Amino acid sequence: MGAVKNLLVLYTGGTIGMLQTPAGLAPAGGFDARMRDHLAQRNDAPTLQWTLRELNPLIDSANMQQANWLAMRDAIIEAVEHDGHDGVLVLHGTDTLAYSAATLSFLLLGLQVPVLLTGSMLPAGAPDSDAWDNLVGALRQFEQGLGNGVQLYFHGRLLHGCRASKLRSEAFDAFTVMERHREGERAAQIPASLDYRQVRQAVKLAVLPVFPGLCADYLRGLFDAGVQGLLLECYGSGTGPSDDQALLDALHGARQSGVMIVAISQCPEGAVVFDTYAAGSKLRDTGLVSGGGMTREAALGKMFALLGAGLDVEAAERWFALDLCGERA
């Protein structure tokens, strides 16, 4: 929990550094100079040493892809292991900020430095922007001392990296940690196969909410497209159509063919407890894995980290059921 002495600021794009273009706001380079100019004008600016690196290309976070997550992971590891940085601040757009925070939590398991993500709802320099408050507030967290692992800082709040969600599309307090029931056995240790040094590869994943009218044909379309992992957002405590045998058969057949299928609750404050209702038990019996009270962001990021490490579906399910970094417990 000591103060960070040599911080990397990893600028990925996003609203915080956007400038106006004829087509609208777009990510812009040169944020290093803008950040230094602003801090030089503040009497209360944090005094820690920092270096800014821009990822290429800079992106609007609405365009976030798995390749961008892997590029962030690689840049963070290089900064720590080769450049001697003892902390990393990631500047990121808000649309997928919670997804990236959760995913990096699993991609960086075992990395012994603090990683903090922040962004803003308005660009730096815009009237009444929250950008500099969020950025300076994040710097102060490093100055005061942060524990290792991935966290998110926004609007004066420090949030768990794989528990946060974006709740509001316009308000400055856009992010929160929902009160979801969490219960899970903590993994005794992180295996080498899931350590941050483990190379990852892209994975075909899909997220599908259960809704009235969901039928087997929709599921077969996903599975026929080569989906390796499906995150199924169920009703309430993990229920869904239990009287549609074709749908149940489609889920069971996909699991038998090696597709990982995870169930979470689509309720903002909910958790999967399959045995509460018969409708949940029937879904479980097709081969679904319970995500407990995990958020969509955490469940998707964890599936990517497990399957992307090359684990087969049985091994991935075993590790998914365990708490790796506070996502389930």
UniProtKB/TrEMBL annotation:
<dbReference type="InterPro" id="IPR006034">
    <property type="entry name" value="Asparaginase/glutaminase-like"/>
</dbReference>
<feature type="active site">
    <location>
        <position position="94"/>
    </location>
</feature>
<feature type="domain" description="Asparaginase/glutaminase C-terminal">
    <location>
        <begin position="206"/>
        <end position="320"/>
    </location>
</feature>
<dbReference type="Pfam" id="PF00710">
    <property type="entry name" value="Asparaginase"/>
</dbReference>
<dbReference type="InterPro" id="IPR027474">
    <property type="entry name" value="L-asparaginase_N"/>
</dbReference>
<dbReference type="InterPro" id="IPR027473">
    <property type="entry name" value="L-asparaginase_C"/>
</dbReference>
<feature type="active site">
    <location>
        <position position="15"/>
    </location>
</feature>
<dbReference type="InterPro" id="IPR041725">
    <property type="entry name" value="L-asparaginase_I"/>
</dbReference>
<dbReference type="InterPro" id="IPR036152">
    <property type="entry name" value="Asp/glu_Ase-like_sf"/>
</dbReference>
<dbReference type="Pfam" id="PF17763">
    <property type="entry name" value="Asparaginase_C"/>
</dbReference>
<dbReference type="InterPro" id="IPR040919">
    <property type="entry name" value="Asparaginase_C"/>
</dbReference>
<dbReference type="InterPro" id="IPR027475">
    <property type="entry name" value="Asparaginase/glutaminase_AS2"/>
</dbReference>
<feature type="domain" description="L-asparaginase N-terminal">
    <location>
        <begin position="7"/>
        <end position="180"/>
    </location>
</feature>
<dbReference type="InterPro" id="IPR020827">
    <property type="entry name" value="Asparaginase/glutaminase_AS1"/>
</dbReference>
<comment type="similarity">
    <text>Belongs to the asparaginase 1 family.</text>
</comment>
<protein>
    <submittedName>
        <fullName>Asparaginase</fullName>
    </submittedName>
</protein>
<dbReference type="InterPro" id="IPR037152">
    <property type="entry name" value="L-asparaginase_N_sf"/>
</dbReference>
